[in-house]
Amino acid sequence: MSTVVPLAVPVEMRLSPAALPPNSIGTRFHLSLNVSSIEKMTSFLQLVLGVAPAKQRADYAKFEMDSPPLVLSLEPNPPQESGSLNHLGFRFATTADLLQAQKRIEAAGISTQREEGVECCYAKQTKFWVHDPDQRLWEFYVLEGDLEHRGGGQTLEQLVGDSTSCSPAIAQVPPTVWEHRMGSDFAIPALPSDQIRLRGTFNVPVSEADVSRILCEVFMNLKSGGQVELHVLTSESSLTGPLNLPGPAACVKYVPARPLLMKKLTKAGFVDVRLTTFRSGACFQTNGLPLRETKITALKPSTSLDSSLIDLIYRGPFAEIRDDYGTVWHRGELRSVSTARWEELRIAGHEASFTAIPQTSTFSQCGQ
Known about the structure:
Blueprint: H1 11-14, E1 28-34, H2 38-49, E2 55-57, E3 60-66, E4 69-75, H3 79-82, E5 85-92, H4 95-107, E6 113-120, E7 123-131, E8 137-146, H5 156-159, H6 168-171, E9 177-181, E10 193-199, H7 208-221, E11 222-234, H8 258-267, E12 271-278, E13 284-286, E14 289-299, E15 309-314, E16 320-322, E17 328-330, E18 334-338, H9 339-347, E19 354-357
Parallel strand pairs: 1-4, 5-8, 9-10, 10-11
Antiparallel strand pairs: 1-5, 2-3, 3-4, 6-7, 7-8, 11-14, 12-14, 13-14, 15-18, 15-19, 16-17
């Protein structure tokens, strides 16, 4: 007969903060998960975390912890349909802290969407939202009080089938992503996409003409500012002869030359072509040539009519660089570009190389 051993939980996690003022600890990290059963997940987390839920309803649950300072909420969305992550962010102690964070984020060139006194998640909140480069939703909010009803900001009907937000205005437009995998028929969707992922598409025998045609079809399907991502095994030059790769890689029958793929992306009209995965070590070697796992991202140029400008400074380390539009960026030199171009640079992963200077002056203490 087996013996049930109680779960050892640190003392600081056993003290439920439910009786404490909700903002008594200052800023807390906030994580919202999609779960298939509120009841089952709440019971599981109560054992794992060692605290009772601070709030539990048939269609919502919330845990609050002091160590670490965390607000963990559960939403009734089947993860297999919408992914496990609903949204994440921070809860602030005061409205002044929230406003300071919003000013800092907007001064960095990131747009926000603000909601005042919204009733959401069985609480009244003031908040703002931002999307990160991968379109995850971040919520920054102040809890103004608890409610006995879910609130108009997020009804159960609006929630089911959509995992992005308490804000229906944001949740209604998820990005459209289409993916093609090696060996399946290549049939570009009829509706335009925000992102297209090509997984091993070019690891079956294809001609240079086939590669050009596929990339052109992808370019035509993508929305303005959309992204293509290639995940493929590449070599540094063209290969001849059979590959005979071991294990699961045996399904790879063709390995394109990486420089050729990157040139064809540019020729198809893409900009900001970037190697996001390319390691010094090779996965395989055949005919004396190393074969590497390669991920390449590129953008379809934006045709946004937004004429607003933002000032950017290229931070280095090179004396100058030239982008795919022919613009030469000199280190430390300020240059005005459209907000659409700045968004392209951010999506392409170049944000760390630039500092955005807002058109209106802002001041902050040095070192903060």
